[in-house]
TrEMBL record, chains A, B:
Keywords assigned: DNA-binding, Transcription, Transcription regulation
Pfam families on file: LacI (PF00356), Peripla_BP_1 (PF00532)
GO molecular function: DNA-binding transcription factor activity; transcription cis-regulatory region binding
CDD domains tied to this protein: HTH_LacI, PBP1_GntR
Ribosomal protein is among the record's keywords: no
Highest rank taxon of the organism: Bacteria
Protein name as catalogued: Transcriptional regulator, LacI family
Organism for this UniProt entry: Asticcacaulis taihuensis
PANTHER family (alphabetical): HTH-TYPE TRANSCRIPTIONAL REGULATOR GNTR, LACI-RELATED TRANSCRIPTIONAL REPRESSOR
Stretches assigned to the HTH lacI-type domain: 18-72
InterPro entries for this protein: HTH_LacI, Lambda_DNA-bd_dom_sf, Peripla_BP/Lac1_sug-bd_dom, Peripla_BP_I
DNA sequence: CCAAACAATGTTAGCGCTGTCATTATGCTT
DNA sequence: AAGCATAATGACAGCGCTAACATTGTTTGG
């Protein structure tokens, strides 16, 4: 006769943490009642609930999400995958997302892909393992394997930043292309004729802005390929300075430079200060995104303000609607953008 | 007689995702073998493993981490709680942490406390529910409830950024106070006599830098309280400009201003450019952290370089040692800092 | 005053996976 | 040839929790 209870503790109970059963045993009640005391307080008698909470605190009880997820088939996790944390754009989006998800009891799981589609793929896989109730992704284009996996598992997905015209794709953003075009047209309206476009990182959003730029210049009959400077390196303020130098070698008569984001543009402003190029008299400079610093630079930076926080908020709301099987009015929400004319152009 | 199998599917199997059992059934083998094929490939015959992987791909199988965590009492999760994502300092630390954890199969769970100890407390609680194998925290001081919880659960904890002399506290960082003192002494050595300290956010690290500043000036017999400007607002470039204005009202004869971080200092540089105050001739400016932009500003910014990435790397390594019950040589690692004298002072 | 509704708690089973301990087949040593 | 190690697979139980249903006791409406 082997004593069953002897076999009990062969396996490490998860680091000896207190469980619902521990609390229940101490109070001589059943564990389901303890569970209810936390999840459904109204269903447990006031007085008993207080005693449960007291014992729970004494024991340092923390609920085990893995067990809860497994039992309820609801993880309350939302996976969010973004390309970079060094880019304030995505941080703003995250804050928007978090503002909606946290109060509703969802836990955001954050993945950073470093602008690599391989990593993106790996992250989707890794976070699907957390059994998320939904996923938020930062772009529209994924590798076939990723799309296949997402379809198979059937998890609701919302895409941010860009717009899609496909029927079953849910997205919140604005037209990057239109924004690029708007800025270029603004520069044209200001009388600039030899307008350059300088870009780095070259993700799909950057490329879309470039298309908008090209469009506007072609329409105006002023497009010149030598004024396009695009490099794959990650954006930074220092890179903005270097690219300005290269641009001025490559096309010295340029009278306005449209940088694909504010980081590069700020670096260019510094480089101009260093080289004593007066902005905008000798060279106009424009950026994209309206980061918080861009209103403070000298000269202040002409740019396009993008509704990043709102994209996060509305994206999260759309995802919650999908999760709770409510109807989603529109599968695409265009939040637009705003031209910010300032001193630099 | 109730048909047992009829009762089977009453509960939603987690969104109908494929399970190990599904794969096993399809191949006429047992699920434990499928599990081994993924976790312990050497233990399963080559040929069988290939068939398993093929079927898994077909079904879009993704392992269920909740189940795995529950069964193995090892979550492979590491909770990391930081005060802010808008601050490049913490992003650099995260990159360091991730570099170590990812290849070892750990999943980093990120929480942002917005510099609030209430939120910090709530986050510790929320992430303990993920049954983390370890926790990385950004400071040393926690509310009693948090400390109590961490002790009760016995999860290994590593603190970053600051140093502690307490025996059982594990931390990786540098002395914020010494760094503040070093910068102040550098300014003194450069001949500045009326040195101000401007700070925002006022977390424990900022305050420690302030103590270093005060120390140095008191020792030099040059301390003057009216040159200390400290506000609780979150740091930003715009705030740096405003604080410079206030400082110059409050103490117009100041000849050097030490800002508690580079964001503020950069804002001050812009404000000087705007007001045509020449830096460093009329006013010297110094920052802290050596953010990537700080070498590119005009004039370039004198600052203290902090080993952020390395703090992340070494912190993560220390935590892994604790988790795997290896001996940890030192419970405190001081990574130092480096003065970066540049044009602004 | 009784049936029906409700409030408070309990019983049972199972979510998907893995630790532990078999079991069987195969090779290898002396 | 006997004995033993090793390789490949399987059976079983249980991690901590919760959905579904069951069981009490108590209230309420007519």
């Amino acid at each position: 006769m082997v004593d069953k209870s002897a076999k009990r503790n062969v396996r490490a109970s998860s680091s000896g943490r207190a469980t619902l059963d521990d609390i229940a045993a101490k109070l001589g009640i059943s564990s389901i009642t303890v569970s209810r005391a936390f999840r459904n307080p109204g269903k447990v008698a006031e007085e008993l609930r207080e005693r449960i909470i007291k014992v729970a605190d004494e024991l340092g009880y923390v609920r085990n999400r893995a067990a809860s997820t497994l039992a309820s088939a609801r993880s309350m996790n939302i996976a969010v995958i973004i390309p970079s944390l060094s880019n304030a754009v995505f941080v703003d989006i995250l804050n928007g997302i978090d503002k909606i998800l946290r109060p509703r009891g969802y836990q955001m799981l954050l993945g950073v892909s470093h602008y690599s589609s391989e990593e993106e793929d790996a992250l989707v896989r890794a976070y699907l393992a957390f059994d998320p109730d939904g996923i938020i992704l930062p772009s529209l284009n994924y590798r076939e394997a990723t799309r296949h996996l997402l379809e198979k598992t059937g998890v609701p997905v919302v895409h941010l930043m860009e717009l899609s015209d496909q029927p079953h794709v849910h997205c919140v953003g604005f037209s990057q292309e239109a924004a690029g075009k708007t800025m270029t047209q603004h520069l044209l309206a200001k009388g600039y004729k030899r307008i350059a476009f300088v870009a780095s990182q070259l993700d799909s959003r950057t490329l879309a802005r470039g298309r908008g730029y090209r469009d506007a210049l072609v329409e105006a009959g002023l497009y010149d390929q030598k004024r396009e400077l695009m490099v794959p390196d990650p954006s930074s303020i220092a890179l903005g300075g270097r690219l300005l130098q290269r641009l001025l070698q490559q096309a010295p008569d340029t009278d306005a430079a449209f940088f694909c984001n504010d980081d590069l543009a700020q670096g260019a402003l510094f480089e101009c200060a260093r080289q004593q190029i007066s902005v905008p008299a000798q060279l106009a400079i424009a950026g994209f995104n309206d980061l918080s610093a861009s209103a403070s630079t000298v000269p202040s930076l002409t740019t396009i303000a993008t509704p990043r926080f709102d994209i996060g908020v509305q994206g999260a709301n759309m995802l919650l609607s999908l999760i709770e099987h409510q109807k989603v009015n529109r599968s695409t929400i265009d939040l637009g953008f705003e031209l910010k004319p300032r001193e630099s152009a």
